[in-house]
């Protein structure tokens, strides 16, 4: 916990991106100017816009092109923030950490969270852009633990105990799990409240409190993302989140069918993010 709390402050680019999250008047030029303060981030955003996943026919050469022609302002801002916030964590020493799987789960969860937010019929509507950002960042605590405690987390991730969830094994090894680490990170970096709640509770469908619907929505999206990654679909695993959201299996079946053909290109996108 002390190591998490003593992490360096956010880079200037991340601070600017966070400050711009609530701005309704943010222009393409203003966002491009912030991202272009970091050449490495600029290269990654342009590279993502040129990936097969977004099926863009014309090459993208600038952040402005990526925003205006391919990704849109909200997605570029959220992707840039996700890349910058993950930047401080070098997980190479954690041999069991699968960076490609991490980014597949992050991108798939973010992507699935947006249409799921449109299905929610509760009195707490969730904006698609907030659902996307929360989905993208939900496992940031896991990334931090793998970077800070590579040997311990490598042993935890290598275990295959069916009766012990990852959170339990992590707490036994470190005294803290990825969600608790995420909550500490969110406070340290002053992330938006809704995103912080998701990072702390996305794996707890019974959570009741502020932003509980956003948390359950991202939890369901993460569950669906895992089934896409493993090519195994177990409806029982997502039942608690469906109940929490007031949804049924028929509500999400069309979304799963639409997502299946994009798995391969999403895996390629995850490789691109995992190996900059």
**Sheet bearing the most strands, described?**
none
Q: How many strands? A: 0
Question: Separation of termini?
Answer: 29 Å
**What is the 3D shape?**
globular
CATH superfamily heading of the largest domain: Hypothetical protein af1432
- Elements, N to C (H/E): HHHHHHHHHHHHHHHHH
State Rg.
18 Å
Tally of helical runs: 17
Briefly note the structural class of the backbone.
Answer: mainly alpha
CATH architecture of the largest domain: Orthogonal Bundle
Number of domains: 2
How much strand content do the residues show? under 5%
What is the CATH C level class of the largest domain, in words?
Mainly Alpha
Any idea of the CATH topology of the largest domain? Hypothetical protein af1432
Uncertain spans: none
Mean pLDDT: 87
Percentage of residues in helical conformation: 55-70%
Organism: Thioalkalivibrio sulfidiphilus (strain HL-EbGR7)
Pfam families: HDOD
Domain HDOD: 7-205
Protein name: Putative signal transduction protein
Please give a structural write-up.
InterPro entries: HDOD (IPR013976), RNase_Y/CdgJ (IPR052340). Pfam families: HDOD (PF08668). This is Putative signal transduction protein. It comes from Thioalkalivibrio sulfidiphilus (strain HL-EbGR7). With 276 residues, the chain is mainly alpha-helical. It has two domains: 81 residues, no CATH class; 187 residues, Hypothetical protein af1432 (Orthogonal Bundle). 67% of the residues lie in helices and 0% in strands. The longest helix has 21 residues. The mean pLDDT is 87.
